[in-house]
């Protein structure tokens, strides 16, 4: 007992109290704009300057994940991730600080690593705060037993969220069956029993062993001054002493699989699933890029072999595949969703038939080139965004070295059909597969997975390619955006705005909206409108869907089209040199769609399957029910909220002729708007937009569909969802308010304090942080820009056994904020956090393009945002409390709870 007490006392002490003299960091290497340094205590630092956005991302990766968990410790790495937000010696309320600084933060855990990141507005104060936070919680996090008691139930809640999805559980079962010894066979979320029973001493020991500078890599990316940042990093991290403990390398090796394995899962659900997994090399092996190409050849929609064999024939509603980037030899996974009325055996035989026939029907050069174009485009798109690069580096760091990402790209460029067919024959063997039954064989044919290469030797001296073009340091203040934006009219009634600026990788984003119809003419046409928009990029006069997708990939472009009753939206992202060709294709998509019958049949099947999957999910059921109650429009009205059954029936009854007629009768550009943000030639871009949108008419002109305010009767609705481990809580009420009303700013900040921010609101502090009742909890308000109608909504994801506790806690917090009001301290922090978060959001070019597009229709400029920000800054405690009490009435709140409450 005395020994146990001594150990407990020892574990409760700060992780490391010693410091050491700070020495100058050593520069190790520089590749494509990213420079690596090493501190004397072993911390590796990657700096990636990118002035194109006024944001900074700080991301720290610890080289520990579920792969390094011991017996009885499953889920410990992930549980520790949660505990790291509970406070440290200098930062006792981390969620509050994250909200106060307007950060977009998170922490994630995977097989080989755990990472924590914050993206925030680029100021010296914010950067110093972030570095101080991460250095302090590296060694001084509380990891206290009192926090464990509340947080383990939150993690269990997250565990149960995954348990609700048969597809997720099937994947977990298949992978655990594929691995006998290696920890990749255990899910990162862990065992529920381990999560609930882990002693605090073991969690503290795990933390002290792995959360040290010599086991971490810090990335700082964005608008930074590299020498200054390096000095700050050294200031905050350099004094941490290098630990004396040694981390022994993991040595477990998964033996080669010696026969096909199978697993069967039986649970409540609405869609059947078939899956197959194969063992493959680690992501540092040269075959990894080749296997990634093979995966795309098989699963790409609409050109992939599995897509054509399963989805086009309607044997399956969806198919997918992925290969994990892992440090040790990993796996590639394929799956297909099959409607209940279809044959699962037929889909399974088709899936395995395609995978087994690769040696008889080798992959072609066209297939390989198509996949490489897509994957290289995806890599370049990621590399153009410093925020994404900062986070993506975690995966390569965990695999052995950050430069593996560039080596993967280099290997990708070298892939040829011979390589792809070689790896298909080498790894896609029945004996290396987990899916079906076991059949004994006299001469087993096994795949021996090569060991991971010596990464240090592999990356030694690596220089990489020339980095992407640098961009200007753009000021995202409303005044500067207005100053830089030019607007104009298009013959026939359309409008455009364009903001040209240099961007990283010469990227440009475009948002186009076509408005059509009115409340009377769009009666009973909501489903037809949605399906019509979805079909536009599935075939044109010149391109099949496959050709269209291939061409856009070659042009490094993304073109998305979606629609609802009254509006069709087109979003475009590409690079400056390819924009003219992309806009030519968009012109054809909008003006010369062919509506192929086979694509329409596939679309209907996919849409129905998506709806079927939602029918037993608590989240989908609760949200749909809440909106049905809060928006009780008459059936057939464009804003009517359909039930799942009504959605399915509407899709089944729609025929291709309906879409063609809708396109002919409604599509026009008389009220169209288009906005451009990014690197482009202003004159030629305006000319092409004009060519797309000018003088396009239809017989059904556009008129805004007024949204009505419904004074809804409050109810408390419980919906049973059998065999679902997780439940959903939705509460809400309608508000008679517009976003330009004088008290909307006060209501916005009041809600931010009640249920906004990052785990730092009144609701989050009570329901998640204090009582551990919910994994996710929050609230939000919205308001119309043209109609005086908005909503106040709250949500929580929780264990159904806690329904009464959650209900009570929620109502107490609502009543408390209305009775006692907010404090001056809360208001000050909320103003800062909200305004900084808004600045981070508007720094995204695609977000800005969408906003400018909407403002053209509303006849607004960014002056509206400037005035709103001023209102936020000038708010008083009295104004916020008055607004909350005026609009939020506990006696009018609707409650919807969906879960297995037995």
On the 0 to 100 scale, the average pLDDT is: 93
**Strand order across the largest sheet:** 1-2-3-7-4-6-5
- Radius of gyration equals 28 Å
- State the end-to-end CA separation: 42 Å
How many individual helices?
33
Overall, the morphology is globular
Supply the CATH architecture of the largest domain.
Answer: 2-Layer Sandwich
Considering DSSP H and I runs of 4 or more, what fraction of the residues is helical? 40-55%
The count of domains is: 4
Your description of this structure?
The chain has 902 residues and is of the alpha+beta class. The chain has a seven-stranded mixed sheet, with helices on both faces. The protein is built from 33 helices and 23 strands. Residues 1-19 and 436-441 have low confidence and may be disordered. Helix 27 packs across helix 33. 44% of the residues lie in helices and 18% in strands. It has four domains: 2-237, Cytochrome Bc1 Complex, Chain A, domain 1 (2-Layer Sandwich); 261-454, Cytochrome Bc1 Complex, Chain A, domain 1, CATH 3.30.830.10; 478-693, 2-Layer Sandwich (Cytochrome Bc1 Complex, Chain A, domain 1), CATH 3.30.830; 716-899, Metalloenzyme, LuxS/M16 peptidase-like (Cytochrome Bc1 Complex, Chain A, domain 1, 2-Layer Sandwich).
